[in-house]
Amino acid sequence: MEMDHRDDYKSPTNNREFDEPPSRQRKGSGRISTAAKAFRAITAIVVFGVPLVAGTAALIGYGVHKAFKRITGK
What we know:
By secondary structure, the protein is mainly alpha-helical. It has a domain at 29-72. Helices cover 69% and strands 0% of the residues. It has helices at 16-19, 22-25, 30-72. The longest helix has 43 residues, at 30-72.
């Protein structure tokens, strides 16, 4: 009688943990990943959005200042 040893171990080709990237192997709860996504979105807004808005406001303010000086002749 032959014994089937296929279930004794998991081969790397049948085990999804080896096929997926390391970031997906330790998948946490949905609440943690949602919090992480929210943190990443807020960080992106702060890092890119705030300087963009401040720079745009500075350029517009400078343009208005130059236009005002040109109109008033000062």
